[in-house]
Amino acid sequence: MAKRGGFPGGMPGNMTNLMKQAQKMQKQMEEAQKELEEQEVTAAAGGGAVEVTVSGKREITKVKLSEEVVDPDDIEMLEDLIMAAANEALRKLDEVSQQSMAKITGGLGGGLPF
User: Fold this and answer.
1) Dist. CA 84–CA 80, nearest whole Å
2) Mean pLDDT, range 45-73, rounded to an integer
3) How confident is the model at residue 51 (pLDDT cuts 50, 70, 90)?
4) In this structure, are residues 69 and 79 in contact, taking their beta carbons and an 8 Å threshold?
């Protein structure tokens, strides 16, 4: 007859190890997030006519415009270039973040499986 309750085969020890690994992974993720927040990513649009720099905190920290792109008769093009550069910088930041988390999680998708 099977025993009721408990964990056969020493499961509590395995749970302790699993919890330790999860805590270690959480600490590594927090450290990686802090490092990421200190990074900056720059992207350009219009052949380099517009550059946007984004911090790891997802804040735009710098916008650089070439003189030739500043045309008072074509504000819409400038707006589109700024938006394109900003979106590309954010995509690059997401890529850096995913790569950083993948190193820690071993490909678990950036999170814990529970």
Assistant:
1) 6
2) 94
3) very high
4) no
Which amino acid is residue 92, in one-letter code? K
In sequence order, the 6+-apart residues with CB closer than 8 A to the CB of 53 are 40, 41, 42, 60, 61, 62, 63, 64, 89
SS (H, E, C) the chain: CCCCCCCCCCHHHHHHHHHHHHHHHHHHHHHHHHHHHCCEEEEEECCCCEEEEEECCCCEEEEEECHHHCCCCCHHHHHHHHHHHHHHHHHHHHHHHHHHHHHHHCCCCCCCCC
Instruction: Report residue 85: phi and psi, to 5°.
Output: -65, -40
Give the model's confidence band at 114: pLDDT under 50 very low, under 70 low, under 90 confident, else very high.
Answer: very low
Model's pTM, two decimal places?
A: 0.68
